[in-house]
Amino acid sequence: MNDVSTDVDNFRVVDSIVLGFSADPVLRWAFPEPHKYLTTCPTIIQLYGGGAFEHSSAYQLQNYAGAALWLPPDVHPDEEGLTKLFQDNFDGAQLDEIFSLFEQMDNFHPDEPCWHLAFIAVDPAQQNKGYGSALLEHTLEVVDRDKKLAYLESTNEANLTLYQRHGFELIGNIQAGNSPSLFPMIREPR
How far apart are alpha carbons 56 and 13 in whole angstroms? Predict the structure, then answer.
């Protein structure tokens, strides 16, 4: 597991996450056109999980085959930046649905300070090698040591079993209009 420490590393981590989310149900629902996905998704990653770079909680492994952005307690996504990005890219019913998703996400997010897994991704060509588990375990050791909650919203139902194997429990379902579901999950410290 390697910490991410330079701007070049940051860009490579974002690239890894963009690649890992290329078939993600929620992001591809929002950005079905490939060019729009590839040009907008890096900014979403920075706005939603970029605080991990500033707080030394961004990690990569195996030469960027996988990466994770964890927001430490009391570090949050850039809501103002995300609002502007979505207003610039959507209108009408789809914008309302996106804002509804974010409102529901806020409702499920724990009130107490917690570790928030903003993004975790593995290059599709490198999946099924245990990289996702390794990325989870690295920070969950800190979570347990510090006796903090961990929280995430899975945008892909296929990943729920991975999170459940690491102690996360499903606490609801987030869905708006025609969007795919997001799955908020929480993990008590061990």
Answer: 13
**How many Å apart are CA 50 and CA 44, to the nearest integer?**
9
The CA-atom distances, in angstroms, between 126 and each of 1, 13, 65, 85, 121 are: 15, 15, 6, 31, 10
Q: How far is CA 162 from CA 44, 61, 71, 111, 186, in A?
A: 24, 18, 20, 25, 13
- Best CA proximity match to 24, nearest among 155, 152, 173: 155
pLDDT tens column, 7-22: 668 999 999 999 999 9
The answer to whether 173 and 143 have CB atoms below 8 angstroms apart is: no
The residues, ordered by sequence, that sit 6+ positions from 4 with a Cβ below 8 Å of its Cβ are 10, 13, 53, 58, 59, 60, 67
- Contact assessment for residue 147 and residue 189, using Cβ atoms and an 8 Å cutoff: yes
Q: What is the CATH number of domain 2-187?
A: 3.40.630.30
Q: Break the chain into its structural domains and give their ranges.
A: 2-187
Q: What is the pLDDT of residues 142-157, one digit of tens each?
A: 999 999 999 999 999 9
Rounded to the nearest 10 degrees, the angle between the axes of helix 79-89 and helix 34-49 is 160
